Each structure stands twice: as structure tokens, then as C-alpha cells.
């Protein structure tokens, strides 16, 4: 397909308008700086077929044309989704494209495309950027699935190798990147599960000096951080988390330059086009109805996380939260975050051993009714898991130690259901009982 910025088209085509291609495609305003909420409000609003305030769901797998010649022109890349010409929903679907435009606005990138999961977005972008034998420099502290993809799957299947680094050690990162060899610097804006904050502007500067593409997973901090506005090239998301907010959908997105997104949709060479991790249009509709209140939800997640982290610390627990002033990355996060959205909705409590972590979670769920023992994050209820034995279990003991994952680390995604004081009472009650039964930290 051609190199047009199809993802940002704003003009709808008249259905009988095959011949002239429906006119010139317009671009939505690209907000590369400022508040993501302002960018989202400026994105094209799609109305329903009958004038509905919500768009219609385009549930078709395939699309018809008025003239046979149109089909040839669409496959030749002369007519595309930028002018509202659609072929087949693995290629492009209008409803998925609408959500993709919202994701591009959220992250301040030229383009975006949504996928069936966060992992498919991550795997596809890495495969697109690194050919066989490519080299990646990546943070040691990554979601377990991504870590396994880089340490086991990509080396075996594509001979793509990864040097893992301490992302806070800029010298180490710089030394690991080899000009002409390293294709990608991969990191999480706020790391899973240790909540380490990456210095995105400085890391991007170092990478760009050596021609390396910076890919940032922003799953833990949508609205709070805008990696592309801070200098990163590509932002990936597991939409399954905060963006969805309902713990009911698995989805992902790649946000980046139009040239990259277009290359990923290329008929001959595109990882998204040819591997086919396609998002269903009904899922895309659901998600696009949730994005307008993502900012409100993030504010509340962050406000409660800060309140609970502050109070838990006073109770003598070993709390990790980058919103706390004594967190080693607090000033860095303060210098980068979008002020209205706080410091994020995740906190960790280090209980040192798995046994004590399990006791804490058991008390919180079954005595205090404070939250649920479950992996994942971004739900309105609090979710908690012991990372070392769950979402980071793909890392071996040495890798976990290097990543700073203590066996007793409990990751908590703070929900916003109920009132803050009601939830604090439940939390405090459970902790007090735990401490009384001899497990004071
Ligand atoms: C930071 C991060 N990135 C990516 C993923 C993978 O996303 P998904 O489960 O949507 O494939 C996860 C999942 O837990 C995650 O926590």
C-alpha cells in the first residue's frame, strides 16, 4: 500500500463515489504536546449511520464496490481507508480505524492501529522493526510475557537477540546500543511490576544518536505519561488494562509514525497484515466508548493510590510508589508526567517472602474485602498479585533478582469503587489484623 497517512483521515466517502475516490483526505490535528485529553477532544468524531451520537459498528468482514475497477485500485493501494475505501476487515475496518485514531490522539502519534492483544502489538512491532538476526536492547524489568518473547521466542524463531540492561543506568544502556546493529531500544514507561520510571527524553536522545528506534510500553501509565511527546518513536499498549477498565476485554495497540503503521499493514511485508492479530469491530466499538472517561478514571486511580501508599507507609509497610516523595524516581516522574493525572494507579508492597505476601493478600481479600487476588490491572476494583510467582514467573531467579523483583512483592492495582475512606477502613483493618497476628513488616 502507498505511504499516505490513512489513519488520520477525517472525510467520509459517499458510497456512490467510487470513481473520483471521494476527494482529498484531511488529517486530524496532531497534538504532539500538551494534555492528551485535549488531543482526544480534537479527534474526529464519528456519528452513527442514522445520525446517532455514537458511531455505527461496521460488523462486516468484507466490503462491496460499485465498479469492478475499484477493487483493482484498492489492491494497488490507489484507494484506501484514508478515503473510506475498505476491502476486508483484516486489512482495515472502519470501527477499528476509529479506535485507532483515538489511540493516536491519546499518545500524540501520527498514526496507530489496534490489535487483538497487547502481546500481539508488541510482537508485531518488534518483528517489523527487526529483521532476521536483528539486535534489541531492552530493560531487564519488563512484563513476564515480553521478557519471554525477547529471551526465548524471538532468538529461537528469528535469531533476534536482546541485551538486557538496567534502564536507569544510562551509561549501561548507551554502551549496549551498537550503531548499525541495534534496531530497537525497548522499555516500559513505568515497569511491571517494580514501578521503576524510565527517563524517556534522555533514553530517546541516546538511542536516536545511534539510529535506534525507541519503543515504549505505556500500559501502566496511559494519560499520566505520553512517551511519544517525550521523544519516543513508538508506543505500545495492552488495552486490556486501564484503557479498557472493565477487565473484560483483551486488546492492544501500536501507536507511532504513519510510515511504521503503514509498513505494518503492507500487503507483502506487514506484520499486522500478514500475521493477522485483528481486533473485532464490536470490541473496537466497546473500547472507543470507554476512552472519553479514561482521564477521569486515571485521576481517581492515581489519587487513591497516592492516599493509600502514604497511609500504608505510616503503618510501617515497605511501600513502593513513584508518587511518594522518597521514591528514587519521584522527581523524574514529576518532570515528565501530565500533571492532572497524578502518578499512576499501581502500588507495590514488599513483604519480602512469598509466604508473607500470600498472607497479606489473603487478609486483604478474605478478611478486609478490600480487593481481589487476580492478575491484570486497571479495573475499578483493586486487583493484587504476588508478581514473582505470577506475572513475572517467566523470569528465572537470577533474572528476577536483577530486575529487582523480591519474592514477596505484592503488586496492587488500586480501584476506585466505593469511597476512599470506606476502602481505607477495609485496608487498614486487614493490615492491623495481619500485624497483630505476628507479621509486622
Ligand atoms: C506491561 C504489559 N505489557 C503487555 C502486556 C500484555 O498484554 P495482553 O495481556 O493484552 O496481551 C501486559 C499484560 O499483563 C503488561 O502488563
Automatic annotation (TrEMBL):
Pfam families registered for this protein in UniProt: Cys_Met_Meta_PP (PF01053)
Keyword annotations from UniProtKB, A to Z: Pyridoxal phosphate
The keyword Cytoplasm is assigned to this record: no
GO molecular-function terms, A-Z: carbon-sulfur lyase activity; pyridoxal phosphate binding
InterPro entries xref list: Cys/Met-Metab_PyrdxlP-dep_enz, PyrdxlP-dep_Trfase, PyrdxlP-dep_Trfase_major, PyrdxlP-dep_Trfase_small
SUPFAM superfamilies recorded: PLP-dependent transferases (SSF53383)
GO biological process, one term: transsulfuration
One cellular-component annotation, GO: cytoplasm
Cofactor: pyridoxal 5'-phosphate
Modification N6-(pyridoxal phosphate)lysine occurs at: 241
Region (Disordered): 1-36
Basic and acidic residues bias (residue ranges): 14-27
PANTHER family: CYSTATHIONINE GAMMA-LYASE (PTHR11808:SF80), TRANS-SULFURATION ENZYME FAMILY MEMBER (PTHR11808)
Similarity remark: Belongs to the trans-sulfuration enzymes family.
UniProt-recorded name of the protein: Methionine gamma-lyase
